[in-house]
Amino acid sequence: xxxxxxxGWLVLVALSACTFSTENADEENIGxxxxxxxxxxxxxxxxxxxxxxxxxNFGSNYVSANGASGxxxxxxxxxxxxxxxxxxxxxxxxxxxxxVTNGSATTFDIYKLTRGFAVGEKTNVTWxxxxxxxxxxxxxxxxxxxxxxxTLASFVPSATGQKSIAFNAEGRAALSYQANxxxxxxxxxxxxxxxxSDALVFDSREGAQPAVLDVTYTTGSAGGSDLGVMTYNLAxxxxxxxxxxxxxxxELMVAEGASVICGNESSxxxxxxxxxxxxxxxxxxxxxxxxGKNSIFxxxxxxxxSGKPLASYGCEQRYVARATINAGSGxxxxxxxxxxxxxxKSGVPCTAVxxxxxxxxxxxxxxxxxxxxxxxxxxxxxxxxxxxxxxxxSPEYAAxxxxxxxxxTDVWPAAISLTSATAYPTCNPVGFASTRTRKQRIDFIFVSxxxxxxxxxxxxxxxxxxxxxxxxxxxxxxxxxxxxHNPVVSTIHVP
Length: 495
Known about the structure:
Layout: E1 15-22, E2 36-43, E3 45-50, E4 62-65, E5 73-78, H1 81-85, E6 89-102, E7 108-112, E8 129-130, E9 133-134, E10 153-155, E11 161-166, H2 169-180, E12 188-192, E13 200-203, E14 212-219, E15 225-233, H3 246-255, E16 260-264, H4 268-282, E17 287-291, E18 294-298, E19 304-309, E20 319-327, E21 330-338, H5 355-369, E22 375-381, E23 387-389, E24 392-393, H6 395-401, E25 409-410, H7 411-417, E26 421-422, E27 443-448, E28 451-456, E29 488-494
Parallel strand pairs: 15-16, 21-22, 26-28
Antiparallel strand pairs: 1-2, 2-14, 3-5, 4-13, 5-12, 6-11, 6-13, 6-14, 7-10, 7-12, 8-9, 15-29, 16-18, 17-18, 19-20, 20-21, 22-27, 23-24, 25-27, 28-29
Helix pairs in contact: 3-4, 5-6
């Protein structure tokens, strides 16, 4: 875990280990609705960021925070609560335990982060940088783009030794949300409430007594489970600087928190490299299946896999890959496809491809999906925009959302209607047609049999690296991106 020394903010990171118990419960009733359970969740990642060293990534055996003017230090931590206590939970009590090695008379406040930072041994977070894209304000201080403004807990670490920090009602609600919405769990941040320079220092994940989050919670009230899904055209691993770098793509994929990912332009060998990079970036197990340069990556083991070449195509043979996982109460079928483009790889127009060719391919994919029971997710690069509005769709969009072989919901407008869609408004605002995944919105996640919780098109630009050679002729060219496509990430609720 990366940690920093004299920090004014602290972010709570993923938990991979926990212990749990039941209270007043018979063995056969464990997990029953409204049963009260308890767990102690060990922090998985932590880091510190320093105003005086805005581009330096720190790692050590301690985390620190202070409010010293001009030399603020803030710490980042994240507990992956769904791994520790599952989803469909309501947290009724929560206490953060830290081992203070340097006390402070300063009051510190805890907030919820709204922007992710890369996890694993390759975390690159700094005062200026959150994961691959910069913080909206250096030091993760922008409300709401970097963090929320509601205080979740306050404490004064005046003495060394074990310090217990109780979360208030808003804090318990925020932790419940993070447990139930994996892709929206960006962690927590602790900030000094004043400009006092005396620093809080406590043990990090590598220290003698790492941070632990003790929670009491009930289960069964929400039903089903949330699943984080991403679609991402990997461009064969090549970024907009023309450099092939699987690790930076994997770090972005891990930072966005999805458990299942559709990756286009990914051969079997590329998928192996990406899978290995995902394991390195997350310290977790990942599975991969590839069919026809469409790869499905999953933290959840596959129960079945298959693929199909599409009979209708113009420029080059097209395919669909299918992997089934178990989530919620039954199977979830993930189908990853790459619909035909008007241009060959050489850039020479392919006159054989028409809108009707793409519609035929879409109908083939839907017919293939219909042969499998359970929840269905169709994701990938469709090489066609959605149209100007849901009531004025493009022919391709009308085909995928139409009733033939089952109607599908586009996660993006569904999240817009829930006010849970996010992009990066200074360059890529939220809108049905205006949000870009390349030059237009051509990458999609469609679902059937599941409900949409949220969706995001993250800012993947590295604004400190302007060596862009693959141009989109828009503000995405202001910084190098890991691919020439933006990913789409969604949390869906699987019954």
